[in-house]
UniProtKB/TrEMBL annotation:
Pfam families (alphabetical): Zn_ribbon_8
Sequence segments annotated as region (Disordered): 52-110
Name of the protein in question: Putative regulatory protein FmdB zinc ribbon domain-containing protein
Domain Putative regulatory protein FmdB zinc ribbon: 1-41
Basic and acidic residues composition-biased segments: 58-69
Entry-linked InterPro entries: Regulatory_FmdB_Zinc_ribbon (IPR013429)
Organism of origin: Achromobacter mucicolens
Length: 110
């Protein structure tokens, strides 16, 4: 059963657990017994969600106004955005011979 919020003119706000079929009906104030109308008092309890759901909601809120595009015109490992290309494993000597850093020297490649 959901919990609905009501407001008594004399005593203030209170909450009552009621069946869905009675969502429109007024509820009796627990202090004075006067029938009171239903109000929408607050937002849903978003903090009761799991941390993964909270992160997803936060990401949606951040991207709601300014979505970030991954198609900015730069390819993977571009030099301007990633702080320069890292050197690969291939090393070239002065005479043009190539070697591979960390490779096994006894292996023959094709």
């Amino acid at each position: 059963m959901p919990m609905y919020d009501y407001a008594c003119a004399e005593c203030g706000e209170f909450a009552v657990l009621r069946p869905l079929a009675q969502w429109r009906d007024p509820a009796a104030c627990p202090q004075c017994g006067v029938l009171s109308g239903r109000i929408v008092a607050g937002a849903p309890a978003v903090s009761a969600l799991s941390s993964a759901m909270n992160r997803a909601h936060a990401a949606n809120e951040r991207s709601a106004n300014e979505p970030r595009s991954t198609r900015a015109g730069h390819g993977m490992n571009c030099g301007c955005c990633s702080g320069g290309r890292s050197r690969g494993r291939t090393r070239t000597t002065g005479d043009g011979a190539k070697s591979f850093a960390g490779a096994r020297p006894w292996m023959i490649s094709h």
